[in-house]
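FYI - complex with aspartic acid, inputs then prediction.
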Amino acid sequence: MKIILKFGGTSISSASNIRQVANLIKTLSKEHHVIPVFSALSGVTDDLIKITDHIQKRNRDAAKALAKKIIKVHMDLANQCAKNTKIRKELETKMKADLDELEGLLDGMLLLGEVTPRSSDYMVSFGERLSINLVAFTLNDIGIRAVPLTGKDIGIITDSNFGSARPLMDTTRLHVSHTIESLSQKKIMPVIGGFAAADQNGNITTLGRGGSDYTATIVASSIKADEVWLMSDVDGLMTTDPKIVKNAKLIKEVSYIEAMEMALFGAKNIHPKALEPLVAKKIPLRIRNTFNIKNPGTLVTTNPLPETQKTVKCVSAIRHTALIDVRGGSMVGAPGTAATIFSILAKAGVNIMMISQSPSESSISIIVKKNDLDKAVNSLEMNLLGKIIKKVDVTLDVSIIALIGSGMRGITGVASKVFTAVAKRKVNVIMIAQGSSELNLAFVVKDSDCNAAVQALHDEFELAKN
Ligand code: ASP
Ligand code: MG
């Protein structure tokens, strides 16, 4: 099989983990054609983003100190990963060259005191650029010919939407398949850096947070891989958060659509666009644990096996959100009210997580992240209070509970089962929304009721039973 193996940052957080991953790749490549893709080391992307914040605020010392930390972490690992002296020297030389470029970029940005979307992407792309050096040379050290290549190097071309660029798939497919094919003829394994790519002018772009997943699926689609494995430190998708429900179980199979829903609800942070390249080509995805490879993980396919189908497959919760209730008599029968409200929130940079409107049209309820609440309320009050809106009410500390499963579609009685189970635990439901796809049913409760509601539903739908 041709397998794209994508490893998250936690899989390569120490020299011994990096060696373990290299050995796993070596073992798998005896049987398969393996092409690995890597994230940055854990925390490095966050630190690079912080550096850009410091530059913007002209905190020269703080920016320099963080860069120093990143340099130390990578140089220390470079020193520990390879046993062979010659290979270790080569790794250190490559790492130093990349780190010099990082420092040069930092000095340039500090001098200008300016962070543009373009320079920011260039800066944050260094996480993956550095991590692949460690893996590629560790592979060399255990006898596998491998070269570190960034997304730009292997030929992923995107639009110039810095920060969340989209791949131009036709060009990308040509370039990526050519690069990988010619390396494979020379028996060289590309060790690909995720997350970053380049636009048509050669500027470095990034695919959005968590974008290494997306890189893996873009590459898979480009070379028609047989499978993609997302390797991290969890066994796969779970029926719910094991921190809330002790007997939460691993989900064996889900469809792409279910997985996308689950990803949006943060069950496991899969990049939301990452499944797109796979769907058209029907390339299966597995979510697996680097440190528990015996476990087959969760399989994501077009058509999960009938015996794995259930009405509800997973209950997720998003805590610490806030509810805004917007009311006003003049909202009734006035076309454009919702559009006005939502565009004001959009202008304020507020992301809306859930909406519901009563058919009387006199109120609209909106759920936002707690961090966005002040921005949201201020902008609504400044722009609309006393005009189309009479009142803005806020309920703090609420959670969204979502049930996900394509088996809910067209089945009667799911909602009644849900709300009866919740009512039995004396949990009050504040707001409800179900998309017409019937793939998920979501409702809102007080944060303090969140665990009880999740437990009740996990029991009611017997999710712990396999
Ligand atoms: N390093 C990037 C991030 O932390 C991409 C990834 O990890 O997938 O968002
Ligand atoms: Mg990451």
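The chain has two domains: 2-233, 314-465. The two ends are 29 Å apart (CA to CA).
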